[in-house]
Amino acid sequence: MKVTLERNHLLKSLGHVHRVVERRNTYPILANVLIKASEDRLELRATDLDIEVTESVPAMVATPGTTTVPAHTLYEIVRKLADGAEVKLETEGGEQMLLTSGRSRFHLACLSPDSFPDLKSGSFGHTFSIPAEALRELIERTQFAISTEETRYYLNGIYFHTVENSQTGMVLRAVATDGHRMARAEAGAPEGSSGMPGIIVPKKTVGEVQKLLDGAEGDVAVEVSDTKIRFKLGTVVLLSKLIEGTFPDYERVTPKNNDKEMTVDRATFATAVDRVSTIASDRGGKAVKLSARDGQLELSVTNPDHGTASEELAVAFETDGFEIGFNARYLLDIIAQIRSESAVFLFNDAGSPTLVKEAGEARALYVLMPMRV
């Protein structure tokens, strides 16, 4: 193999593919990136056996060929080369790859590409395109609520499915929950997505897709089967296994009869919660108490080791003498997702889940379990 290409093109592609490679691997080949030179393109591919990312970049190919080299090492070398530099890659007898750029020379150990794993994609029953902005918003509004508890593996991702919304018609809905809070967001269902199976996209895949979508424009092609999902964005293709399991019936825990409505200024409320929670105890679950009376909401925290804190702010709330407690960090995570100037809380009682949404027509809903304080 003998190929020449521009450093910035190579760095951008390596930035996309090398992230899926784990720092520690049982199998040495999984630490490597597959490099394939053919015609006028250089294809890069990396995998952790659950996710596979492939991208091709323009290159001047003198001699076609395929090899694998350590992914993170190659990325760090290219990252430290001069901006706009020309990079030459050449294999020497199949055991080493010579990388030259200006006066820099690196010899990298190669492993045979014959043993590089291939995630067989199989056939996809549903194919559709969704604007990058819409997919990015679905992920941003829900990914914070993904559970990290490995015993409940079916919660370790975002649940995507299509559903009929009585007000807006068919929608593509994303849901995530860790049992303490739930996030739900919707976008118009793309043509071809209707009837797709409900799928759970793993947290790592969600994170990689989110990075690919950063600053991206145009449409993302999505292909779905019962076991895998594939995203195509420009020259990048991300293939991932899905989480096998049944996502819980989130509709059962979505409040239907919460009739105590409180409207607060989002920014004022967020800064107040952040201030009073400064002295909250991690041992106590960062608990903050909300007490409403006479159009005022008092936020208070009690920490036996550090003291107390309280702050009042004006709210629109017709119910007096109402108290409820929340985990301050969970509360702030949800408020951070509210895009309107006001946040609307719908309560039932101090022991029941609370519904949080934006003022006006909301395309996202959040459920938060209360705490005893």
UniProtKB/TrEMBL annotation:
Complex formation: Forms a ring-shaped head-to-tail homodimer around DNA.
Annotated InterPro entries: DNA_clamp_sf (IPR046938), DNA_polIII_beta (IPR001001), DNA_polIII_beta_C (IPR022635), DNA_polIII_beta_cen (IPR022637), DNA_polIII_beta_N (IPR022634)
Keyword match Transferase: yes
Major location category of this protein: cytoplasm
Biological processes, Gene Ontology terms: DNA strand elongation involved in DNA replication
Cellular location(s): Cytoplasm
GO CC annotations, alphabetized: cytoplasm; DNA polymerase III complex
Domain DNA polymerase III beta sliding clamp N-terminal: 1-119
Domain DNA polymerase III beta sliding clamp central: 130-249
Stretches assigned to the DNA polymerase III beta sliding clamp C-terminal domain: 252-372
SUPFAM superfamilies in alphabetical order: DNA clamp (SSF55979)
Pfam families in the record: DNA_pol3_beta, DNA_pol3_beta_2, DNA_pol3_beta_3
Molecular functions per Gene Ontology: 3'-5' exonuclease activity; DNA binding; DNA-directed DNA polymerase activity
DNA damage found in the keyword field: no
Function recorded in the entry: Confers DNA tethering and processivity to DNA polymerases and other proteins. Acts as a clamp, forming a ring around DNA (a reaction catalyzed by the clamp-loading complex) which diffuses in an ATP-independent manner freely and bidirectionally along dsDNA. Initially characterized for its ability to contact the catalytic subunit of DNA polymerase III (Pol III), a complex, multichain enzyme responsible for most of the replicative synthesis in bacteria; Pol III exhibits 3'-5' exonuclease proofreading activity.
SMART domains, alphabetized: POL3Bc (SM00480)
Family: Belongs to the beta sliding clamp family.
Protein name listed in UniProt: Beta sliding clamp
PANTHER family reported in the protein's UniProt record: BETA SLIDING CLAMP (PTHR30478:SF0), DNA POLYMERASE III SUBUNIT BETA (PTHR30478)
Key words, A-Z: Cytoplasm, DNA replication, DNA-binding, DNA-directed DNA polymerase, Nucleotidyltransferase, Transferase
